[in-house]
Amino acid sequence: MRSSRVSRVAAVAALAVVAALTVGALPAAAANPAPDVVPALQEWAAGTGSLQLTPSTRIVVPAGASPRVGQLATQLVAEVAELTPLRPTTATGTPAQGDVTLRVDPNASYGAVQATLKPEAYRLDTTATGVTITGASDTGLYYGTRSLLQILVRGTTVPLGSAVDYPNYAVRGFMLDVGRRYFTPEFVKAYITWMGWLKLNTFQLHLNDNEIQAPNGDWTQAYSAFRLKSTNPAFSGLAATDGSYTRADWDSFEATAAAHAVTLVPEIDAPGHARAFVRAHPELGLNGGNSDNLDLSKAATTDYMKSVYSEFAPWFKGPALHMGADEYPGDKGLQRTYINTMAAHIRSLGKQVRIWGDFNSFPGGATGSDRDITVNSWNNGYYSGQNAIDDGYDVINSNDGNLYVVPFATYYHPQGLDGAWLYSNWEPNVFGGETVPAQHARLKGAMPAVWNDLVHATYTELDVHGLVKKSFAVLAQKEWSGTRSGTDYGAFVARVTAVGMGPGVGYIRPVVNPDDLALGRPTTASSQESSGLAPVFATDGEQSTRWASQYSDSQWIQVDLGATRTVGSVVLDWEGAYGKDYDIRVSPDGTTWTTVSQRRGRTTAGVDTIALTPVGTRYVRMQGVTRGTTYGYSLYRFEVLADATDLARAGTATASTQETANFPAARAIDGDPATRWSSAYTNGEWFQVDLGASKTVGRVVLTWEAAYGRDYDLQVSANGTTWTTVSARRGENGGVDDVTFTPTTARYVRMQGVTRGTSYGYSLYTCEIRSS
Length: 772
Known about the structure:
Elements: H1 5-20, E1 25-31, E2 43-52, E3 58-61, H2 67-83, E4 89-92, E5 99-104, E6 122-126, E7 130-135, H3 138-152, E8 157-165, E9 171-177, H4 185-197, E10 202-206, E11 208-210, E12 224-226, H5 247-259, E13 263-270, H6 275-280, H7 299-312, E14 320-324, H8 332-348, E15 352-356, E16 374-377, H9 380-383, H10 385-390, E17 394-397, H11 400-403, E18 404-405, H12 419-425, E19 430-431, E20 434-435, E21 443-446, E22 449-450, H13 461-468, H14 472-480, H15 489-499, E23 523-525, E24 547-548, E25 556-574, E26 579-587, E27 594-599, E28 606-627, E29 634-642, E30 652-655, E31 677-678, E32 686-704, E33 709-717, E34 724-729, E35 736-756, E36 763-770
Parallel strand pairs: 3-4, 3-5, 5-7, 9-10, 9-21, 9-22, 10-13, 13-14, 14-15, 15-16, 16-17, 17-21, 18-22
Antiparallel strand pairs: 1-2, 2-8, 6-7, 6-8, 11-12, 19-20, 23-25, 24-29, 25-28, 25-29, 26-27, 26-28, 30-32, 31-36, 32-35, 32-36, 33-34, 33-35
């Protein structure tokens, strides 16, 4: 069901496309601001006016382009169709008016990009005749398509001008501990796709681990897991029984990563955190196997771990393999020898080596340690970023104080990273209380981490996502273009909400109410407790973020719906600081207010659903009267719901034809989802509803039977004779079409078929007509 807020906004933009009927530059008086993409653009040369994309827009691949460019064009066509009302096609050769051209040119101008980062750079040039995305490589070209899509989700016009964009750091990463908690392949692939949307490029999967302390000191009772499942009998029993990834699973991860410019970094952690290996081979563990650490005094231990890396290295397409290697309580000299030996072995398998840094716990520090290794600096005491640089290591910032999430624990960041703090205070060169030179040649980037220490807790993978998504876009912003997005965190969050999570992430995308008129709309308040509790967080569609006011009674929060809309109810999801007494007020102009509901005597937090007599308004406010606690007012959600009254139910339906007497037009408005109208087996059939009197109409929901309309127009009329098209639908694929358009007054509403989607006719289970 294409019923997200983004698709509804885009549908309004599509109406403008149809009304214009022509393609071309639209005049504008002032220079265009840089498009609001996430991460923000590095460089922007403004033009004036905009280019309107239309149903005839094509994605053009120049003759002689590489196969990957053609693949990306096909991918972009599908993504545009998912996120917008446009239905472009691909073409090869010379672009026409209004087309989008994809090309790779390493010799084009990419501004101030560092030479080592140039492959990820791109240009997005828009003129009155078309859009050209030029990548310095296939990767840069992919990133350019992300920026174009982020522009298009808010309307099908593209501002004229030239963007030049590139990253500040090579590694823009995220690490997920799947060793202590299994995450499904669907989750992993959705995260890879989401990372590409935000131009994050490195996803490390921590593939084995165990609980931190053994129950009553007995490691045979401790939870542990290794998540790769080989068919090789030599590794029978090694894979976790509560969830593991087959070669086919991993291949699907790699294919998704390749399509979204993400590099996977597998981590097989030893000699500490190694209970899964000791469980399989107790003779290789310290303390006679009653341990989660390998016994490095035995040559068989190193030989076994070499066999593990040799077995699984062919699965991995990326250049790097992470061997963990920290927090080993045994002999440090043996640990150093193990790291050096295993690093050489991993390189012999064709992989670069990464480890977690804790050389400060070694006698002599890093002296005698292999230098051809990249270090994740996770704690300044164990081995800081500056320590690594001084010792000649390439380093990735994974500082625990800033970047560790341990879901629902009592340490690090159990409720997710503080996005507001990160936005104002952090960049990849900040390692806790230590700062190294920005963009130092050995500082490769940053990688926050989620550690699932609480192996017996009952939270889900989607609960973890709820914690991660609070700050994911902030991290992407800081790792790509630093402070280019400005200093206003609230404005940045509004931008993130507007661009959404991109295509192909349905598994993790929040389920939003399609009737919520407030979603992503400008929201203001009388006050906010802190920058991380801004009013925009009450209307961002995320149930984990919230607005909180200062600690006084007469506080308010309001939303601008952007135009007069018919409102049927308001939903307030109160945090612990709830409102005891408050009013719901509406206003046509944000100045003169009318109270439409008085709420008195609330005694708890939770959800308050307030039904209203349907009212036309542009602004809606919660006006506090009395707080329920000594704190202020705090809302997870402030939803303003459209009037959901189905105007068709009281109307009269007619149609151009009916297949048989069993499928009359009236069946589509009888409220029974199992009955339906069906037409004759020809194109051009129509179905219409007489509402009985003129009503405000702004939304039509069509639930199709298998015989759907591929191309059709939604039309309205005052008299049933003269019709106006309010939305032209093209290239639809059945299911449920939830179509919103500029509210208009009409007595008659018609679905005018153009082209059937099958060899049958048109068939509707339901046709719902609403005011907005």
